[in-house]
């Protein structure tokens, strides 16, 4: 069992990474492997709606999005972390997620588990978490809860550890994620996939 951890902060060792590591510690404790990817410092262009991925199955731009798509095939879950930028995730991370999820809408990510972490100096953390979770909810990926919204606060690197409730929330998030991965795997073995067996219906609103 494996979880991909996506660090959307430009800082490899900042507060976002520290919070993700706290959740990761619980995943390892429960026997879940992790694959850590730092993306917040990269130059990643956004989606241009060319729809080439719907023909080829891969994004037209050959960069880390294609590599991440390959890694997701064998992953059981995706844990995304981002700092708060104007009450939203880091723009680089959003560019990556738009292309990653759009180019994989025809991939079966159903029942892969998704979790998000947002780190703020003060406000905007729940709005950021909401944006990240919507990627999972569009893709039949169950979203991991915790004892509180999966947010923590800190400004200078390492300061997030002073948010004791935030760190405990990260630990509970990791434990819940491990449990859901194991439970869903057992459920799929016993009951099969709940994904609807019908052609996709898309309703377009026109005049």
Write up this protein:
With 207 residues, the protein is an alpha/beta fold. The protein has helices at residues 15-29, 52-56, 64-73, 91-102, 125-137, 164-191, and strands at residues 2-7, 33-38, 77-83, 113-120, 151-153. A five-stranded parallel β-sheet has the order 2-1-3-4-5, with helices on both faces. α4 (91-102) links the parallel β3 (77-83) and β4. The protein is globular. The mean pLDDT is 96.
Task: Describe this structure in a few short sentences.
The protein is of the alpha/beta class and 207 residues long. It has helices at 15-29, 52-56, 64-73, 91-102, 125-137, 164-191, and strands at residues 2-7, 33-38, 77-83, 113-120, 151-153.
| Helix/sheet category | alpha/beta
H/E series: EHEHHEHEHEH
Strand order of the largest sheet: 2-1-3-4-5
Considering DSSP H and I runs of 4 or more, what fraction of the residues is helical? 40-55%
The biggest sheet amounts to:
5 strands, parallel
pLDDT under 50 segments (min length 5)? Answer: none
Q: What is the 3D form?
A: globular
Q: How much is the average pLDDT?
A: 96
User: How many extended strands?
Assistant: 5
